[in-house]
Amino acid sequence: MLASIPTEHGLYLAAALFLLGLIGVLVRRNLIFMLLSLEIMLNATGLAFIVAGARWGEPEGQIMFMLILAVAAAEVAVALALILLIYRRFGTLDADRISGMRG
Amino acid sequence: MEITFYIAAIIAVVSTIMVITRLNAVHALLYLIVSLLAVALIFFLLGAPFAAALEVIIYAGAIMVLFVFVIMMLNLGKESVAQENRWFTPYLWLGPGILSFVLLIELVYLLATDSSALSSAEMITPQQVGVALFGPYLLAVELAAMLLLTGLVGAYHLGREEPEEKP
């Protein structure tokens, strides 16, 4: 009793989520929110892979999704450590206040 | 049966919009967890139950708990909310937002003109995924293991307290 969902509709959803994440990265100035928007974009990419895997009935889509999951986990660990470091060193998470270089 | 997909899709989009417009970080996290759960339901509907379980356990569970811990450690508070509110003015993001919207319309048009292919949604069992993962894709598993170890070491090195500088 599986639903037969049109492939385009799944891709529309993935594209909409990806664009929302992109808009989040562009709009927000807090580093935590920019990282959350990056997570939304990665998740939308995984959704596109799962939709493609369901379209052709192959397990490769889910394997790519797992690799994206591993990349997201490693990226979040390193990025959150960087955010802690930035907050300790600059006392702010405003991406505009820390964008200047000390050169 | 198909209506569940559209309801879950609407929930995912609405909660994601709420994520990128909240000013309080914890509220945004709660909405993002709702969005991830909706996407997990969609994975299940598309015949990928293993991916749905991984989405709930790793994304909605582990990664979001990491975010909550860091937000609690930072304790951003009221002045951060006020600062985000000041930056949330339209003139900064109106241009990129409109361009992205045009791109979305273009993509929808391109996909809608060729609407012949329907997904023959058949269940892909975790056994199939595991056989493929440890057969032809064994090298990818090794690479993912190396990547995760690198992330662990890097996060530990970056996140430790800096030693006091000697005068």
TrEMBL record, chain A:
The keyword Transmembrane applies. One of its GO terms (biological process) is ATP synthesis coupled electron transport. It is an enzyme of class 7 (translocase). It holds the Pfam family Oxidored_q2. Its EC number is 7.1.1.-. GO terms for molecular function: NADH dehydrogenase (quinone) (non-electrogenic) activity; quinone binding. It is found in: Cell inner membrane; Membrane. The chain crosses the membrane at residues 12-28, 40-57, 63-87. It comes from the Bacteria. It catalyses: a quinone + NADH + 5 H(+)(in) = a quinol + NAD(+) + 4 H(+)(out). Keywords: Cell inner membrane, Cell membrane, Membrane, NAD, Quinone, Translocase, Transmembrane, Transmembrane helix, Transport, Ubiquinone. One of its GO terms (cellular component) is NADH dehydrogenase complex. It is a multi-pass membrane protein. HAMAP family: NDH1_NuoK. NDH-1 shuttles electrons from NADH, via FMN and iron-sulfur (Fe-S) centers, to quinones in the respiratory chain. The immediate electron acceptor for the enzyme in this species is believed to be ubiquinone. Couples the redox reaction to proton translocation (for every two electrons transferred, four hydrogen ions are translocated across the cytoplasmic membrane), and thus conserves the redox energy in a proton gradient. NDH-1 is composed of 14 different subunits. Subunits NuoA, H, J, K, L, M, N constitute the membrane sector of the complex. This is NADH-quinone oxidoreductase subunit K.
UniProtKB/TrEMBL annotation, chain B:
Belongs to the complex I subunit 6 family. It catalyses: a quinone + NADH + 5 H(+)(in) = a quinol + NAD(+) + 4 H(+)(out). NDH-1 shuttles electrons from NADH, via FMN and iron-sulfur (Fe-S) centers, to quinones in the respiratory chain. Couples the redox reaction to proton translocation (for every two electrons transferred, four hydrogen ions are translocated across the cytoplasmic membrane), and thus conserves the redox energy in a proton gradient. Pfam families: Oxidored_q3 (PF00499). GO terms for cellular component: plasma membrane. It is a multi-pass membrane protein. It is found in: Cell membrane. It is an enzyme of class 7 (translocase). The chain crosses the membrane at residues 6-23, 30-50, 56-76, 88-112, 132-158. Its EC number is 7.1.1.-. One of its GO terms (molecular function) is quinone binding. Its main location: membrane. This is NADH-quinone oxidoreductase subunit J. The keyword Transferase does not apply. It comes from Nitrosococcus watsoni (strain C-113). Keywords: Cell membrane, Membrane, NAD, Quinone, Translocase, Transmembrane, Transmembrane helix, Ubiquinone.
